[in-house]
Amino acid sequence: MSNQDKRNNKYSELNKNQKSIRRKSWARIVKNLIIRGPVSWRDKKAGRYWNYGVDFAQLINYHKIGDKAASVVYYLLLAFFPLLMLIMFFISLIGRNIEITAEAVERVRTFLPDPILNIIESLIKDIRSPLSSISLIITISMALWASSRGVGQVFRGIARIYPPRDDNLPIPSRIIGIVLTIFFFILLTLATVVMSFGRVIFDFLNEHLKFIDIQKWVVDILTYGFSFFLIFSVLYILYYTNSRRSVGNIPSAPGALFATVGWILLSYVYSFYIANRASLASLYGGLANIIILMFWLNFSIQILLLGAVINYQRAWYSLQTDGTYIKLTDTIRKLESEENPFDYLPKSVAIKDRPSQDKL
């Protein structure tokens, strides 16, 4: 580059070659600012948080979170309806006087968008208890098969983010999906009973225990608090099961909390958008609710996978307490898929602080 090119002339006065050089220089400056952060923040706590956020964005791109979520949604959509039908059948078998009505569904409005509630309501009106034990067995088998496929794909999506162990037992994801489906089915059934009949239980206590005056707002807090705890517990178990099959002491609580709050916020925002902005009914007609369900499942799975990324990052950065630290993305990009990134941590990290390799 000549001295004439190096002069700080106005951009409009430069020729085509000089403008190209100037644009590339600006691009390098902006890229360096985004990746490394402001100069005054570097080697400080603010710089650490900045690098954490940049690393998080790079991990999303590296693991292709959007593509993985789209591949899971198909199987999860197959699992949604059979699992819902199985829960309704089971509730109807508890007693003849127990009925899941539209009023009971309204109690979960906080956690599900309105179009999805419409789908559930239409199913509730059509679902009836099986007429024979044979039909019940067939229904349970089909629902378990379809639901386990969806849950197994969710499990596999998280497992592909975490670094795997070399000594894992070769358990198929379908078997894990069946076990988790049965467990989730029990929890969801319990949640349905509590959210449907919680008010009845408290009315019974108020009627027979006069010294206890339970207000309606207390019932609402307990009901929604239980629902929040249930969602957190389900996600925690899902993350914990994967973390035990991966290298490193990858925590489960940060991602489970993020995914729980994110899922509830998603339902709020999605419901508001559908009610006030979107006109999907005129575009998709009778398929609008199904399309809305597919988009909602896609966003929900993305939040779930982002929670796994947060857990992974938490385990990585918690081992680097000194001033210098390595980004997780910079490490895993240099490794093969089966290599352990924790082996490439700085040697200054104490042995006792390194991730445990003990089996479950």
**Apparent shape:** globular
DSSP E strands, number? 0
Count of domain modules: 1
The average pLDDT is: 72
Can you summarize the main beta sheet? none
SSE ordering: HHHHHHHHHHHHH
Which blocks of ≥5 consecutive residues have pLDDT under 50? 350-360
Rg, alpha carbons: 26 Å
Strand content: under 5%
Helix tally equals: 13
Structural class: mainly alpha
What does this entry look like structurally?
The radius of gyration is 26 Å and the shape is globular. Helix content is 69%, strand content 0%. With 360 residues, it is an all-alpha fold. It has one domain. It is built from 13 helices and no strands.
Helices, strands, pairings?
Layout: H1 3-6, H2 16-36, H3 45-63, H4 65-94, H5 102-106, H6 114-126, H7 133-159, H8 173-208, H9 216-243, H10 253-276, H11 280-284, H12 288-317, H13 328-332
Helix pairs in contact: 3-12, 4-7, 4-8, 4-12, 6-12, 7-8, 8-9, 9-10, 10-12
